[in-house]
Amino acid sequence: MTAKRVTIPQLILIAGTRVALGVGIGLLVAGKFTKRQRRASGWTLLGAGALSTIPIAATVLGRPQI
Questions:
Q1: 32 touches 38 (CB < 8 A)
Q2: Residue 16 maps to a domain
Q3: Overall domain count for the chain
Q4: Considering the entire predicted model, what is its pTM?
């Protein structure tokens, strides 16, 4: 396994995407909102978290090692 260096801002972005994914999944399975509200907000957060992960992962994994 190779080690990658991650800056603090990149770490915050990575954590933020994980939070969005987790909250999105949580809203999809929770029963606190109406089904329509839950599905709309859950899928939105899930999609935003997943889509924002792609460029961040490409940046971190695609950088040359130092």
A1: yes
A2: yes
A3: 1
A4: 0.55
